[in-house]
Amino acid sequence: MAHEHQEARGVDLALRALDVAISSLVLAVLAIPIGLIALAIRLTSGAPVLYRGQRVGRAGRMFTMYKFRTLTPDAETRLGPYLGPELTALTVMETTRLGRALRSAHLDELPQLYNVLGGTMSIVGPRPIRPAFFAELCEQVPQYWQRLVAPPGMTGFAQLRMTREMTWAEKLAHDLEYIADRSVSLYLRVCAATAWRILTTPVRALAGRRAGPE
Fold first, then answer.
1. Distance CA 54, CA 60 (A)
2. Quick check: 42 and 49 in contact, CB under 8 A?
3. What is d(CA 53, CA 131) in angstroms, rounded to the nearest whole number?
4. How many domains in the chain?
5. Is 210 inside a domain boundary?
6. 140 assigned to some structural domain
7. Whether 124 contacts 95, CB under 8 Å
């Protein structure tokens, strides 16, 4: 059910302008790497190159979210009934070798920049959720619908602070904190923290391997 009466703030216009500027710039700079990733997926595991999934967006409107496909073909059908830690474990089994590398480097998310450019997503906001789980989560956590106030994002407080094993209520608390306090400065801080995490992921992974048993 869409909540068309959701609050809109003046700052949302500034955040939308930032979304358009940043997504356009990144897509232009990374046009060649994006093309090479698409070619690599096509050559190693066939079609389709993109994953297209229905998600619940702002005010309850449905939209198609794009990602580079990192799972084996038709994995979505097999994983559909699962949620939480069980979904995480089964997803690992369905991930392709190239998909693991793309996920590790967060490159599988790049096509969502087209969602941002098109206005169905923002760079910063609550992560979009599959419609099959939306009603269920609203029953478990009555305040869950409040995430619909802002457009879903590629990154956000919950992604920076939490792990996938945390409860939905805990993740929701961080999402609602961002929605309540959203501003240009907060948006830019989340973008900067996300960029830093992505850029330092290989270093942290290498350090973890060196610290482990030989």
1. 12
2. yes
3. 10
4. 1
5. no
6. yes
7. no
What does the chain come to in residues?
214
Residue pLDDT, tens place only, 65-100: 999 999 888 777 777 666 667 777 777 788 999 999
67 φ, ψ (degrees, to nearest 5): -150, 160
- For residue 208, being part of any structural domain is answered with no
pTM of the model: 0.84
Do the beta carbons of residue 56 and residue 134 sit within 8 Å?
yes
In a domain, 102, yes or no: yes
pLDDT tens readout for residues 96-150: 999 999 998 899 999 999 999 999 999 999 999 888 888 888 888 888 888 999 9
Residue partners of 198: CB distance under 8 A and separation at least 6: 105, 106
Buried residues in 162-185 as b, exposed as e (16+ CB within 10 A): beeeeebeebbbbbbebbeebeee
Task: Tell me if 170 sits within 8 A of 157, measured CB to CB.
Answer: no
Give residue 104's domain range: 11-201
